[in-house]
Amino acid sequence: MSWIKERLGWSEVVAKGRRAIWRPLLAEFIGNMFLNLLGCASVVVLNETGSSSNLLISLTFGLVLASVVQVVCHVSGGHINPAVTIAMMVTSNITIIKGVLYIVVQCLGSVVGSAILRALTPVNLGGNLGMTTVHHMLDPLQGFGMEFFLGFLLLFVIFAVCDPHRDDVKGSAPLAIGLAVAACHFSAINYTGSSINPARTFGSAVVSGIWDNQWVYWLGPILGGIAAALIYKHCLAAPAPTSRSQGDTDYSPVRVEEKEMKSLTKDDNAA
């Protein structure tokens, strides 16, 4: 029974002070609000004949996500995506109740972001306000496949850069995640609009009224994210320091350089 209570995470819901649940929920809400507001704004063209470039859209979504994750990751973990939250739930990195609440506020934040964008955009312009749609030459199953692999890549990157036992990762984890999102957009905008995020598409759907193939944008990234999370955790995760023996001979450029330097130092001393 105690194990069930721990997995549900009721204690986190009733926590107070700095651990109060409203803090990470607010962070996830704000993060998704800005993702839909600023990300989808890059799709809007304020004239009747022009169109936004894939380069602009891809970089905007990637940079907005990297910025938001950098701000809120210490509060909520910087999920900003139900696919990320569900993958974290499956791998026991977040409790069930907290994860469900994350998904609710992520969707609410996305709706608010898209609603603000609608209010700031002329009624006769803006098109579908960045709503993701499966290309008319693809069938929904092909769209699902593309979103599956986009979700897979995103969660693969997230689990890799956030692996607590890796000592070879340098640089900014939020930037790496943002670049992964940008890469996904570069490759898949013409296929599905490159959602990778069920909440992002849900928010746009609520405001635009376009609900075609909504299941593609939920099942695709979520199932792809779960697959990536499980593969990384059980096959590719770095071992904990206590499990590394002193005689560990796994190849590492850093270790090789250290051994060579020690050998050279000994030779110099002997001379």
Q: State the share of residues found in helices, binned by percent.
A: 55-70%
The CATH superfamily title: Glycerol uptake facilitator protein
Q: What's the architecture in CATH terms?
A: Up-down Bundle
CATH top level class name: Mainly Alpha
What is the radius of gyration computed over CA atoms, rounded to a whole number of angstroms? 22 Å
Uncertain runs are: 246-261
How many distinct folded domains? 1
Quick tags:
271 residues, mainly alpha, Glycerol uptake facilitator protein, 0% strand
What does this structure look like?
The structure is a single chain. The protein has 271 residues and is an all-alpha fold. The chain has helices at 2-8, 10-13, 22-41, 54-76, 82-90, 96-120, 140-161, 173-192, 198-208, 214-236, 253-270. Helix 3 (22-41) packs antiparallel against helix 4 (54-76), helix 4 packs across helix 8 and helix 7 packs antiparallel against helix 8 (173-192). The longest helix has 25 residues, at 96-120. The relative contact order is 0.15. The model is unreliable at 246-261 (pLDDT under 50). It comes from Cloeon dipterum. The chain crosses the membrane at residues 21-44, 56-78, 99-121, 141-161, 173-194, 214-232.
